């Protein structure tokens, strides 16, 4: 067989693309029998075509890929099911590549290429290629199996793993790899879904992170193995969900998208290179719990969500929809809503030839969007918005809102429920509510109604004399958010038990002050920062 040297010219691009390429190569080398490794080479050739499309500057001479092109004959499969599984793997691989390509053509405000790191990778790649050709591979447990791989695969494998130990920072955050999670402590199971299991872990006893990996005992793996019989291939298929999620976390940078801190590839459960994503830690969203919190906190969730949807509608990847929009796909980080499950996100806009192709069906409502230039107009944005309405706004927005804001909130709920507004208008309206609330413009001018007088006591607190109220920020006492003293007086007068209150120096996310409401002032004592108001008449 003639050996032809091919030159691959690769220019620009991002680090993650390179490493995903690395992973992709590995994923397509499932075994070492003749048939499998031949297919692996064809896939590597295919992979090279994608690298070429990236247009980056890296030169690799690859005799193996050339051999694959010239000697390629359609592999015969022993089973149609195996083909089916490989087809699914390929489709997921291609989907990830599509997101990589979009990222490559985008030159916006994302992560800059880290030239030093890329330089080092190129050096590593060249050194490893040279060493493996000379048969001087170092053997360590971690790299032992690399000797079974082709020079190109081995080279990619090594550069991928070396990447894990290159310290780096991304957006001011340390980028974490395998060595960061080698000695984690306090590992606790957080939850799992169809495919993944998520654990909480403490790094160096300081930073708490979430570790996400394929759940070997989960439904996805179980069903796949039952159907196709190959744990390794089923793992590869499932792991693409994590790879896709990591790709999207990298590309979609927004305060309401969970941050990817890093990732690790390591052997586990007899499978090579299993992937673990290391992400920001959140707490699962409990709708029942949310319904018991203050309107201000519930409004925060809705505003976070609309800010997120606005970003997704105008994202660098195009308009992104969250196909699985259940509340469990989101977590809370310090009261802020963040999306965690991105494996069902899609930037593909439905194609159409007529409006009839642009139907959106929900349990209680159907919509038909217009078809414009072969695409359903705004379908991704509108699907997100209607889901936000049905899962979040109807429950969280109007209930116990300040009366002055109610008409505005009802308008938002109605307009999104009818899909009368796009996400831009929805955001404008929610930001307006935020402005009115945070500036105290929701307060009714009812100062003439205050009958009682209060004595102001600076630098004071009232330790006891608690009573319970709703929606208190503290379980034992009545701790509420108020815009200022005037609102606190109104609250105190609306509670039959209230005889005093203390304005604390703690603030909420809107800048409101937290005030403790009390049944009396017998336990009044000096305390810096607080100001007590004791009712003296009325
Ligand atoms: N960063 C995180 N911090 C805290 N909890 C998390 C985090 N990421 C995920 N979880 C929890 O773990 C569960 C499973 O995670 P995830 O949704 O990614 O898995 P999945 O297999 O894709 O689930 P699904 O079947 O919903 O698609 C989530 O429902 C969420 O409650």
UniProtKB/TrEMBL annotation:
Which keywords does UniProt give here?
Answer: ATP-binding, Developmental protein, Differentiation, Glycoprotein, Golgi apparatus, Kinase, Nucleotide-binding, Osteogenesis, Phosphoprotein, Protein transport, Secreted, Signal, Transferase, Transport, Tyrosine-protein kinase
Q: Please give the GO cellular component terms listed in this UniProt entry.
A: extracellular region; Golgi apparatus
A Gene Ontology BP annotation from the UniProt entry: skeletal system development
EC number(s) in its UniProt entry? Answer: 2.7.10.2
Reaction equations catalysed = L-tyrosyl-[protein] + ATP = O-phospho-L-tyrosyl-[protein] + ADP + H(+)
Kindly list the GO molecular function terms attached to this UniProt entry: ATP binding; non-membrane spanning protein tyrosine kinase activity
**Mind telling me which Gene3D superfamilies this protein's record contains?**
Transferase(Phosphotransferase) domain 1
Specify whether Transferase is a keyword of the entry: yes
| Residues of the Protein kinase domain | 184-538
Q: Where in the cell is it found?
A: Golgi apparatus; Secreted
Instruction: Provide the primary localization.
Output: Golgi
Q: What class of enzyme is it?
A: transferase
* SUPFAM superfamilies named among the record's database cross-references: Protein kinase-like (PK-like)
Fetch the PANTHER family from UniProt. EXTRACELLULAR TYROSINE-PROTEIN KINASE PKDCC, PROTEIN KINASE DOMAIN-CONTAINING PROTEIN
Record protein name field: Extracellular tyrosine-protein kinase PKDCC
In which organism is this protein found? Paramormyrops kingsleyae
């Amino acid at each position: 067989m003639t050996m032809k040297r091919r030159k691959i010219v690769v220019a620009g691009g991002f680090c993650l693309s390179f490493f995903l390429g690395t992973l992709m190569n590995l994923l397509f080398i499932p075994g070492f029998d003749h048939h499998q490794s031949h297919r692996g080479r064809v896939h590597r050739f295919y992979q090279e075509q994608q690298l070429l499309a990236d247009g980056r500057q890296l030169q690799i001479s690859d005799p193996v890929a050339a051999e694959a092109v010239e000697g390629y004959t359609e592999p015969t499969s022993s089973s149609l099911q195996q083909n089916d599984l490989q087809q699914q793997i390929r489709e997921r691989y291609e989907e990830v590549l599509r997101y990589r390509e979009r990222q490559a053509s985008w030159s916006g405000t994302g992560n800059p290429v880290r030239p030093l790191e890329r330089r080092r990778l190129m050096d590593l790649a060249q050194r490893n290629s040279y060493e493996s050709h000379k048969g001087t591979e170092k053997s360590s447990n971690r790299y032992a199996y690399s000797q079974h791989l082709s020079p190109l695969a081995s080279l990619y494998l090594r550069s991928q793993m070396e990447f894990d130990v290159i310290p780096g920072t991304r957006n001011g955050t340390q980028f974490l790899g395998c060595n960061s999670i080698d000695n984690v402590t306090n590992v606790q199971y957080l939850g799992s879904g169809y495919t993944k299991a998520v654990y909480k872990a403490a790094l160096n006893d300081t930073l708490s992170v979430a570790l996400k990996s394929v759940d070997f005992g989960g439904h996805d793996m179980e069903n796949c193995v039952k159907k196709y019989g190959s744990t390794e291939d089923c793992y590869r298929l499932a792991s693409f969900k994590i790879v896709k999620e990591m790709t999207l976390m990298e590309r979609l940078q927004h305060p309401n998208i969970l941050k990817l801190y890093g990732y690790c590839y390591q052997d586990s459960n007899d499978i090579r290179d299993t992937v673990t994503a290391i992400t920001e830690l959140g707490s699962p969203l409990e709708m029942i719990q949310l319904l018991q919190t203050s309107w201000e906190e519930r409004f925060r969730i809705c505003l976070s969500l609309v800010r997120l949807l606005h970003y997704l509608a105008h994202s660098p990847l195009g308009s992104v929809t969250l196909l699985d929009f259940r509340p469990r796909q989101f977590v809370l980080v310090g009261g802020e809503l963040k999306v965690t499950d991105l494996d069902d996100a899609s930037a593909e806009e439905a194609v159409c030839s007529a409006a009839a192709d642009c139907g959106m069906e929900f349990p209680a409502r159907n919509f038909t969007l217009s078809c414009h230039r072969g695409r359903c107009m705004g379908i991704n944005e509108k699907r997100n918005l209607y889901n936000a309405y049905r899962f979040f706004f109807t429950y969280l927005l109007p209930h116990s809102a300040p009366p002055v804001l109610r008409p505005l909130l009802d308008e938002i709920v109605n307009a999104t429920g009818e899909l009368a507004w796009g996400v831009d208008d929805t955001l404008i309206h929610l930001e307006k509510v935020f402005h009115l609330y945070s500036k105290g413009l929701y307060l009714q001018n009812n100062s003439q109604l205050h009958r009682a007088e209060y004595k102001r006591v600076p630098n004071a607190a009232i330790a006891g004399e608690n009573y319970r109220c709703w929606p208190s920020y503290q379980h034992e006492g009545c701790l509420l958010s108020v815009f200022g003293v005037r609102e606190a007086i109104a609250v105190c007068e609306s509670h039959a038990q209230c005889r005093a209150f203390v304005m604390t120096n703690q603030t909420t996310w809107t800048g409101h002050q937290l005030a403790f409401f009390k049944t009396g002032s017998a336990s009044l004592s000096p305390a810096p920062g607080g100001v007590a108001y004791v009712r003296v008449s009325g």
